[in-house]
Structures are given as structure tokens and as C-alpha cells.
Amino acid sequence: MKQQKQIILLSLVTGVVLMVMKFAAYFLTNSNFVLTDAAESIVNVVASSFAFYSIYLASLPRDENHPYGHGKVEFFSVFLEGALIGIAGVIIILKSVYSFFNPEVIRDLLTGAVIIGITGAINGGLGYYMIRKGKSLPSMTIEADGHHLLTDTVTSSGLVIGLLLIHFTNILWLDSALSIMVGLYIIYTAYKLIRRSVAGLMDETDFNIVSDVVKLLGEKRRYEWIDIHNLRAQKYGNELHIDCHLTLPNYFDLNKVHEEVKLVERLINREAGIKTELFIHTDPCLPNCCHYCGMPNCPIRSEAKTEEIEWTMEMVMRNKKHYEQ
Question: Which residue in 51, 70, 141, 251 has the fewest CB atoms around it within 10 Å?
């Protein structure tokens, strides 16, 4: 968690410095196109500030009011970042439309292009670093902030090209037209961030993660694990919570049942690549399970195994035992 705070603090300090540089470029050029980048830099600073606080909050231990921890605050952080980006995009478009019909004098475009190019390169390097770190730690907040910085790099690159185009063609209305295009791109980026945060807050299933878990269970499947069904997963920040039903031989004693449950927990936490808390309800096997059970030397088998049931997303997520139709 200390490393996450250091990364966000680096992003915050860098954001403040680059914001000053971008507004200097705007006052130097009086270009709406440059203002789009400067306005978005305000969002970078505000979002990084909240991200720093959200990482601190997410690191707090569970308590009576938050039995699953404080990890979901990271979804709020991503939502805020997306909302702020969206507001900036709308403001940029409104001002650009106004300036399109009421053009203003713009100047020193080459100097502005150099300043914006430098800030874009710095954001690009920092954004790539944060995305890589966000995936390895893992931290959704750091990864989202990194994607935001890469978006800023894209807009800065387009801005530099646009400023050079305006300078060499002297077509002044391009300043507002290109600003509108960048504003639309910023709004689209905001939509993706908000969509992701709402999905997390609404406990929408992350099918990529669940698919990896199901694949892992299938590959490491033990004879004792006769059936898995009603598997559900939800994320709380960087932690995954899974509950499912596990069918075990009905002649196992409580110690053996506990041992098998712990094996499932250790397997997922060791190899699934995400910290996971499991709530496993165990079911005793029934005679109807025998036709797909591979348990060797079973003392209560009523029929031979005749079917191999593959554990797929569809099979393990349904709320039925595999012999039920």
C-alpha cells in the first residue's frame, strides 16, 4: 500500500507542475485548443488528490460497519475521475462552439506546441508506468489514473499536430474545430471510466476474472471435488469475493471437508493472480452424482461413471447441481 501511495503522490506532484506549464501555454497563445489540454490538467490534479485519499481509505482494515473492507471506495475514485473528465469535455465543447462563431486572435503557436509536446511526453511515460504498476500491484485506482494520463498524451499529441497545422495554414477556425473533436474524445473517455465504476458498484460480474478462476479449477480439479455450482463473484477494490457450492463425497468427516475447502481457497489465491476470499457451501454427494463422479474406490457408488462434465462458466454459475435439469 505504501508503494501505491508513492505512485499516486508522484502523479499528483507531476500533475500540478504540468498544469502550470499548460496554462502558461494557453495565456501565451490564447488558443482554445491549448485550453482543452489545460482544463483537463485540472482534472488530473483533482482526480489524483482523491485517488490518494481513496488508496489510504482502501488500505484500512475491516470493521463492524465495513465487514468486506473499504475497497469499493476505489470505484468512487474512478467515478469521480470520469465525471470530472466529462465535465471538462462539455465545457471545452461549449467554449469552442462559441469561439467558432466569435474567433479570437491566437499567437505564438510554435512555442505553445513545444510546451504541450513536453507535457504530453511526460504524461505518456508516467501513464504507461502507472498502468503497468496498477496491474502488478494490483490497484484499479492507479491503473485508471494511468489510462487517464495516456488519454491526456493522445490529446496533447493531437494538439501539437493541430497547432502546427494552424500555424502553417493560418486557418484560424481549425482551432475551435479541433477543440470540439478533442472534447468529444474526452467525453468518450469519461463514459468508459464511469461505466467501469458503476459496474463495480453494482457488483457486475467481471467475466474475465471469473473465467480465469473457472479455468483454473477445471485444470486443477481433484476427484474429491465432484461438482461446483452456483458460483458468484464480486470485487471489493483489489479483492475478489467468491461464494459457491462444492459437492464432496458424503462419507467425508468434517475435518476432511474442511481440508478440501482450504485446498480450493489456497489454489485460487496462489494461482488466480488476485487476492480472493471464498465462502464455500459444501453439499454431500447423492446417488444421482455417480454417473459423473470420478472418485476412485468409492464405497457407496451406485453406478459407474459414464459422463465427464467440463466446468465451464455456464455450468458452474448456474444455481443447480449438474444432475438437475
Answer: 251
